[in-house]
Amino acid sequence: xxxxxxxxxxxxxxxxxxxxxxxxxxxxxxxxxxxxxxxxxxxxxxxxxxxxxxxxxxxxxxxxxxxxxxxxxxxxxxxxxxxxxxxxxxxxxxxxxxxxxxxx
Length: 104
Known about the structure:
Number of domains: 1
Helix content: 55-70%
Strand content: 5-15%
Shape: globular
CATH class: Mainly Alpha
């Protein structure tokens, strides 16, 4: 390892490294990736996401909770329904960069 690499690692607080590792774990499930891709087109409720992914509501709801906890998606209430959307454009950027990396 170069001196520069050692210096960079030493300057990153352990809690930031841990948080980053936790964030990348969230991307480690293909169902969650499918949900994120589904939300690229805009807001959707859980019924729409279930239909798009051809999955049952309990499975999708569980993954939505994990994505929300990781702050990759947000939600708002509309009547009795929750409407989900990507938290910000960073989510698209992270996925696009990952896709670009695997296609090299």
